Structures are given as structure tokens and as C-alpha cells.
Amino acid sequence: xxxxxxxxxxxxxxxxxxxxxxxxxxxxxxxxxxxxxxxxxxxxxxxxxxxxxxxxxxxxxxxxxxxxxxxxxxxxxxxxxxxxxxxxxxxxxxxxxxxxxxxxxxxxxxxxxxxxxxxxxxxxxxxxxxxxxxxxxxxxxxxxxxxxxxxxxxxxxxxxxxxxxxxxxxxxxxxxxxxxxxxxxxxxxxxxxxxxxxxxxxxxxxxxxxxxxxxxxxxxxxxxxxxxxxxxxxxxxxxxxxxxxxxxxxxxxxxxxxxxxxxxxxxxxxxxxxxxxxxxxxxxxxxxxxxxxxxxxxxxxxxxxxxxxxxxxxxxxxxxxxxxxxxxxxxxxxxxxxxxxxxxxxxxxxxxxxxxxxxxxxxxxxxxxxxxxxxxxxxxxxxxxxxxxxxxxxxxxxxxxxxxxxxxxxxxxxxxxx
Length: 418
Ligand SMILES: CC(=O)N[C@H]1[C@@H](OP(=O)(O)OP(=O)(O)OC[C@H]2O[C@@H](n3ccc(=O)[nH]c3=O)[C@H](O)[C@@H]2O)O[C@H](CO)[C@@H](O)[C@@H]1O
Ligand SMILES: C=C(OP(=O)(O)O)C(=O)O
Known about the structure:
Keywords: Cell cycle, Cell division, Cell shape, Cell wall biogenesis/degradation, Cytoplasm, Peptidoglycan synthesis, Transferase. By secondary structure, this protein is an alpha+beta fold.
């Protein structure tokens, strides 16, 4: 059995970095993940005039008396929460230009609801220079009410943007149908500990009374549930077992736990972490992604790889991003039997994988392909490692420490051969 540490959550950390820009005084965010997205956030904060840096696993930021008024296109296009960073600056200073966000491009990822939240708070919103120019008409955001729902469930990012506008608003705002993903709840705690007045109410509502200014606070990023899920699936797919330190069952969603336990995975808390093993063979199952606490979309590609090894027919239904299936061509190259119809994948297994040369074009796609290569006979070559670095600080070294044979291909830092 191997033991494996878990990094801080990428998706929580990114929203905390943005929230820190609303605060006065020095902020330290502990357990920050050592990923390229963290480095980009340091650069964005620095460009905005903050003193920002990353030492060990501590992200430090001290916002200036007045933040700058633009997020450089080359930085904002590299990460997903660019509009949240924009909202933090807008709520503080009344003006920001930001490019359209980046992050994974597995399908269209609109930000209309972020812009509606800014407009509801009294901003003019104009498309300019390939990005968005937003200005408040008054010195502070005005209080507003809105729903954060979309046809695909509540928007996580737009909930954070709306909260950022509301915490500095003149009056009390009411947000309906908010996302209650851990990313949002940790951001709420962080803002409240710096003096914000956000009250979460039953029925996914929030009532926020704006304050003149936020003080400062420190916080700790929770374990990355997506890294936990990924390594748990790696153990299951290779018939191994692993003790993931610094994490508990409670860090995972009921949607994920119910699904993988039905497939045959055993996960239980031990004093020093979460123990994971497979109970005999991998059983077929059904993955249906959805908003928290349902099965997270960011573990769907990895779960698809796992189900190719199940004895029978499985189904994956992607409800958050209806076209998140960039991993299926790569999995088919290993031999997977996957039929796709709209947002549904039908997977017939088990397939004995043979090695393949494949490329992943987004974080979880390339992760799913690394997992497939672990299950394949022979040496596979995987390109697209740049995407892995965006979200995992050390996934490959961790898999190697657990017994996987993986080497980085020389003169091509974007390629590995498991
Ligand atoms: C609720 C949810 O699971 N959110 C996921 C989403 O967060 P992220 O914040 O990136 O995306 P949203 O939560 O905003 O998007 C959820 C859904 O709403 C739609 N939408 C969003 C904004 C908008 O203005 N209009 C609109 O229609 C999106 O296209 C998507 O279908 O992607 C991240 C990266 O994969 C995941 O970590 C998050 O768990
Ligand atoms: C899609 C993801 O990230 P991002 O929103 O940063 O693109 C992810 O974490 O799986």
C-alpha cells in the first residue's frame, strides 16, 4: 500500500486569491497548490498593484490603496476565474477591463451571468478591445437582487462574482439559487472572516449587507477533492490501494461516494487519512454529473476511464457541461468501447487496453488519458502535460511514488510516457 499527500484545492484557491483583492492589509492563504494557475494569479495581483508572492505553500497578498484598472489579456486568458478577479477590482475601485476568461476550452463557457451581476450592481458593461470594460456609475456598487441559476444549474463563478459586488454594496442584496459548491462556501467564510456580512439561508439563498471596507484575514485551502478522486481512481484501476493523507470522506461529495462505492471502491477514514481500495472487480455503474453535492463534472473524464475497465455496460451523463467529452477519442485509441449520443456516453467493458500515443487538450482529459495509460499494456506516450500543470502540482511524481512507471520525455516537457 502507498501513502500519498493531497494538495490544496485548485478551484477553491483561485476564488480565494480573487477574494483577497477585496481586502485591506496583508492576507496569507495557506496550503495553496503549487500549480501554474497559482503563478498566474500572483502575476495578476502584482499587475494590479498588490504585493503578491508564493512561498512554500503560502500565497501572500497585500492589496494596494487603489488597485489598477485592467487585467492583462495574456494573463486573464490563462485562467478561468478572470471575471471574479474583475468583480473584486470593480467592487473596490469602480472600474476594470478584463479579457474573456481562459481555463479549459472543452466547450463554450459563457460569462453572461457574471456581467448581469455587475450590471445589477450599477455598472455599465461594454465589450471593448476583445474583453469587457466595466464601470460603476456610483462610487460603490448598489444593492441588488438576482437569481444565479442557469439551464444547467447554478453558476459557481457567477455566484462568486455576485457575492463580490454585494459585499461592498450600499445596502442589502438578496441572491437566489446560489451555487453551494465548496468553492463558494470557502469564499463566503473567508470574506466573512474579513468583516463581510453574508448570511447563507435555507433554499440556496444569500442575504448580504454591504460594508464600507473589508479588513484582512488568513485562511487555509481545503484538500483538493478532485486530486483525491483522481488518485483514488488510479488505485482502483490498477488494483492497488492508497492512503491519502490530509483528507477525509467528508471532503468528497455524496454523489461521488455513492457512485464509486456502487462500482466497488472501498473508501474509509483512518486516523491519518482516507484509505482507498477496490473490492474485487470493477462493477458497471452510472455517473450523472450535477451541481454540488452531486457527482462533480471535474471527475467525469477520470470516472469514464474507470468504467472502461468495468465488467458490463456503464453510462455517463454530463449535465453541467453538455459537451465535455474531449477524452473519448483518446480513450478509444487505447481500445475503449464508447458510444456517444449528445451528453451521454455508453461504455462497454472491460476492455484490455493497449498502449497508445495520445494528446489531452484540457486538465481532466489529459488526466483521464494518464489513468488509461496506467491500465494499458505497453508504453504509451501522452502529450498535453501543460494542462496537467494547471491543476495538479505533482500528480505524476505522486503516481510514480505509488509504483507507476512514468518518465518525462526529454526535449519535450509537454510529454510523458507511462
Ligand atoms: C456548478 C458547477 O459544477 N460548476 C463547475 C464549473 O464552474 P464554473 O464557475 O467554471 O462554471 P459555472 O458554474 O458558471 O457553469 C455551470 C453551468 O452554467 C452555465 N453558465 C454559466 C455562466 C453563465 O453566465 N451562463 C451559463 O449558462 C455553464 O455553461 C455551465 O453549463 O466548472 C468548473 C470547472 O469545470 C467546476 O469546477 C465547477 O464545479
Ligand atoms: C475545467 C477545470 O478548470 P478551469 O475551470 O480552471 O478550466 C477543472 O478544474 O476541471
